[in-house]
Design a protein that fits this description.
85 residues; mainly alpha; DNA polymerase, domain 1; 5 helices; 72% helix; globular
C-alpha cells in the first residue's frame, strides 16, 4: 500500500466516533495490517470506510458479514479485541 494511502487509512481508523473502534482499528493497523494479504488489506480498508453504527455490529458479532474477505478480517479484529497484544 502506498504511503499516502496508508496515512489516509490510519486517519480513518483513528478518528472514529466510537472510542473502542478507534483503539481497536488503530492497534490492528499498527500490529497486524502488514501481515494481511492484499485482499485482506482491501477488505480492511472497506471496513474502515463504514460508519461506526454499521461497523460496530460486525465487529462485535451481532451482525454477520456476507463477504468472505471482510468476514476473515472481522474475525481477526474480534480475536485482537479478545487477546490484545
Amino acid at each position: 500500500m502506498h504511503h499516502d494511502d496508508l496515512n489516509r487509512l490510519r486517519w480513518r481508523c483513528t478518528r472514529r466516533a466510537f472510542l473502542e473502534l478507534d483503539l481497536l482499528l488503530g492497534e490492528f493497523l499498527d500490529q497486524r495490517f502488514n501481515g494481511l494479504t492484499e485482499e485482506q488489506a482491501r477488505a480492511f480498508a472497506v471496513l474502515a470506510d463504514l460508519d461506526d453504527h454499521e461497523l460496530w455490529p460486525l465487529v462485535n458479532g451481532s451482525q454477520t458479514c456476507d463477504d468472505p474477505q471482510q468476514a476473515a478480517v472481522l474475525a481477526m479484529l474480534r480475536e485482537s479485541r479478545e487477546n490484545p497484544a
